[in-house]
Amino acid sequence: MEQEKLFNKGFISITLINFVVYLVYYLLIVIIAVIAQSELHATLGQAGLASGIYIIGTLLARLFIGKKLEVMGRKSVLRYGALFYLATTVAYLYMPIIPMLYLVRLLNGFAYGALSTATNAIVTAYIPKSRYGEGINYYGLSTSLAAAIGPLIGLLLLNLTNFRFIVIFSIVLVLLTTIACFAFPVKNIVLTKENREAINKWTFDSFIEKKVIFIAFVAFLMGLSYSSVLAFLSSYVKVIHLVEISSLFFVVYALVITVTRPLSGKIFDSLGEKFVMYPSYLFLTAGLILLSITDSSWMLLLSGGLIGLGYGTFMSNGQAVALKQVVSNHRIGVALSTYFIGLDLGLGVGPFVLGELRSLFSFQEVYLIAAVLPIVCLVLYMISRRKGNNATAAIK
User: Fold this and answer.
1) Sign of the C-alpha dihedral, residues 55, 59, 64, 65?
2) CA distance 75 to 274
3) How far is it, in rounded angstroms, from Cα 354 to Cα 304?
4) Band of residue 312 on the pLDDT scale cut at 50, 70, 90
């Protein structure tokens, strides 16, 4: 049946748009601290803030746009969000002083948060209900691949070119995405009077979907754990003398999730979420433990594969879990923004929290500490499922 077809034109188009949006985000985030220090003579603390303030902008967008998405209209948020993303990317060419860098990063983070909130909601309209897990996993592949390819391109361009070239390259990518956003046909959700009034209220429920808070908290812990890789890998490989092979870490990460993502989506739909979620916690822990004891190339690359199986698998399946909790279409935007607030907050706070621990412990010990967090997630998830099963049994 046509309505059961997953790889329709709309699904493929919004997935490609989402890929570029995230690619530019990851491309810039790995080089901005270096640029802040070399171009604007920022201190290490100022450079760290330049990276972190982006997340503040993203979180503000998640809260506000997640709440207002259906009122403002998915089409308008997608198109004007893309224009704002383009304008704030161009602004990277004009940053003479540190405060201006902070402002550009804050606004660019807001634009990214608004645009990605729109794409995350829009894609749900093109996925058949019976194939939600599979569809979200394929869509999530665009995010995970961007998380692997973006840093690789950013570091490669940083070594071969300069910041101005990187910004112009990013502008071209965002410009093409903006054109695609205006060409892409988007259907807005038709709201009832009651739904519109509920959304316009300034209450906790209008910003946060309570049903998604638990998986959002788990996402926060998983993001916190994975941030140890984003924040310290480039420094860690120097300590263990594996700089030459380190660029392949994210290549292996990307290859593993590309191969396994379709299977994990089918397992999610046919066997249930626990058969995907539990392994994701264990694989991330195993990958971080292996990373902490790595002393050879094959161990480093194997840890990249395990971390891909762990964090890469969790990202999209956690999103699918969040969507399962939503009954009304008009709450999809709020639910997804709640989930990604947890994930983004973990990635944003992680470098600061783990950075403080780095002053007390070695890199190896920090990775072992980070490896404990997915186990905490596993235990919390197990307790949550038992409570849910008990509640269902009591109702019966």
Assistant:
1) positive
2) 35
3) 19
4) confident
Coil vs helix vs strand at 190: coil
In whole angstroms, what is the distance from residue 147 CA to residue 24 CA? 10
Q: Tokens for 276? A: 């995907």
Instruction: In whole angstroms, give the CA distance from residue 242 to residue 227.
Output: 20
- What does the pLDDT average to over 106-134? 86
Structure tokens at 185: 């046909």
- In order of 4, 47, 127, 128, 262, the CA distances from 1 in angstroms are 5, 53, 13, 11, 20
* pLDDT for residue 190 is more than 90: no
Residue-wise pLDDT tens digits, 217-251: 999 999 999 988 877 787 788 889 888 888 788 88
The burial class, CB within 10 Å (0-12 / 13-18 / 19+), for 372 is middle
The answer to whether residues 120 and 336 touch, using CB atoms and an 8 Å cutoff, is: yes
Shortest CA distance to 28 belongs to which of 97, 104, 100?
A: 104
To the nearest 10 degrees (0 to 180), the angle between helices 32-39 and 44-72 is 130
Quote the pTM value: 0.78
pLDDT the model gives residue 328? 65
Higher pLDDT, 291 or 62: 291
Nearest to 47 by CA among 131, 105, 87: 105
